[in-house]
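Thread: quick sanity check before group meeting

JM: Hey all, I'm pulling together slides for Thursday and realized we never actually wrote out the predicted structure for the chain we discussed last week. Dropping the sequence here so it's in one place. If anyone has concerns about the input, flag it before I start.
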Amino acid sequence: MIDFRKHWTEDWARLNLPGAEVWLGRVLASHAAPSRHYHTLQHLDECLALFDQVAHLAGLPGEVAIALWFHDAVYVPLATDNEARSAAWASEALRTAGAPPAVIERIQALVMATAHHDAVADADARLVIDIDLAILGAEPARFAQYEQQVRAEYAAVPALPYRRKRNEILSRFLARPVIYGTPEMHGRFEAQARMNLRHAIGQ
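JM (edit): ok, ran it. Output follows.
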């Protein structure tokens, strides 16, 4: 697992801002909440570790990094405003640190891009989405674990409606012309993601 505190400090330094230490504790505590099973410190670690490998693809890497820190800061299963509330957390933290309004607005937009994972024109938003969706292209054992973790987060939903809705979501990803909008991420994850998705929905 990455050194979260070191990464946090370095990511804020990319924006020439102080590290806003109080927010590090809040973000880590939120990801460690017992109601979470996939949107956890493991997912945050995987996102940041992958970002370290592809940071050269980012136009504004500091903004991409902070967006990744906050994109699941708030996560409540069945809620429809998780991304908006997470973006609000990011905005508050950035204002506290003295970030310019334009930076705050761009990072909010990056967080909101993960709401539907749709194709977007902005290259940094595509990178954030691709990092968030990298789990779809994980090795089969990790993908199977991910599916179990998502099911645990939705344990309150009965099995049949859950399976129906889950298949709809995964089928929408599979139906896309491309899942990953960044060429490097497409080359790395696309083929495995399609294999994982077909297996998960029984195709």
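AS: nice. The mean pLDDT is 95. Residues 4-201 form one domain.
JM: adding both to the slides.
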